[in-house]
Amino acid sequence: MTETAPRIDAHHHLWRLADRAGQWPPPALAAIHRDFTLDDLAPLLAAAGIDGTVLVQTLEDEAETAAMLALAARAPVIRGVVGWTDLTAPDAPEKIARLARDPHLKGLRPMLQDHPDDAWIADPALAPAIDAMVAHGLAFDALVRPRQLGSLLTFALRHPDLRIVVDHGAKPEIGAGGTPGWREAMAALAARPNVWCKLSGLLTEAGEGGTEAVRPYAEAILDLFGPARVLWGSDWPVLNLAGAYGDWLDACRALVPPAHHDAVFGGNAVSFYRLGRA
Asked: Which range of residues forms the domain containing residue 117?
């Protein structure tokens, strides 16, 4: 099959350690404890034939979101930005409206995976902020772990008009032998037409098992969500903890049937994030 859709990396980060005092990653993670700029990423994108990217937040900090949007404005390869704002703030709807004026902002992502309250996302008090996201056409990146999938389902049911994507397949504990109930919880989410999933981040969870350990999880994601609701992402530079950019892309291309490459490796990201609607 001839591949014609743009090739999109639907999930990567950039950071400067000077902006991250006291924040992850710690010095012990030497492979990623340094600055990562677009200049570092550009040759990897070129070698992999990637046409555009989605830059995703890493800090609960609106200053980082502003910096990402400023970078996207001068770097055409960044097709969209997933930023952050406090969804519980009394003025959250106004802040979301202001952020959404920037055409590069495509979504928002709260830092759910380490939130002390696993049920936080199911709080009805979030409704004004989420309604504002829907009104302004923004998507929701769900950075969750398996223990939070039940609350995410409640959230997805409450907001059927919100486009939601599960980052990194919800980070199942692949290297530890898997997370009991992960597939069932993901199946319940996949039954909701407004929920998508990223084929990203799994290699970092695989430990010494590598790509072969990832295979059954990737196959489950493709089976549950179907080829029209799965987006490929590198999760670079976090990926550097487990492997190389090109190797991860090649592994995923081998896992995804060729007939679905246009969708999974680009078309679905364009649709989900509305990347053609600047």
From this structure: 8-273
The Cα–Cα gap between 255 and 249 comes to 10
Q: Tell me what the pLDDT averaged over the chain comes to.
A: 96
In a domain, 204, yes or no: yes
Residue 166's DSSP bridge partners are 142, 197
Task: Note whether residue 3 is domain-resident.
Answer: no
- Tokens matching residue 277: 């609607």
**How confident is residue 1, by pLDDT bands cut at 50, 70 and 90?**
very low
In this structure, what token pair is assigned to residue 37? 């700029």
Is 196 part of any domain? yes
Task: Say what angle helices 127-135 and 92-99 make with each other, to 10 degrees.
Answer: 20
**At 265, phi and psi to the nearest 5?**
-100, 15
Does 2 reside within a domain?
no
* Averaged pLDDT for residues 207-215: 93
CA-CA distance, 56 to 39, in Å (whole number)? Answer: 17
Q: Residue 4's pLDDT is what?
A: 75
**DSSP H helical ranges for 61-181:** 62-74, 92-99, 127-135, 149-158
Nearest residue to 131 (alpha-carbon basis) of 177, 181, 174, 97: 97
- Rounded to two decimals, the pTM is 0.96
What is the spatial distance between Cα 35 and Cα 37, in angstroms, rounded to a whole number? 6
Rounded-to-integer distance, Cα 191 and Cα 172, Å: 19
The CATH number that applies at residue 169 is 3.20.20.140
Number of domains in the chain: 1
Alpha carbon dihedral 65, 72, 106, 16, in 10-degree steps, equals -30
For the stretch 168-190, pLDDT in tens is 999 999 999 989 999 999 999 99
Residue 275 corresponds to which tokens in the numbers above?
């990347």
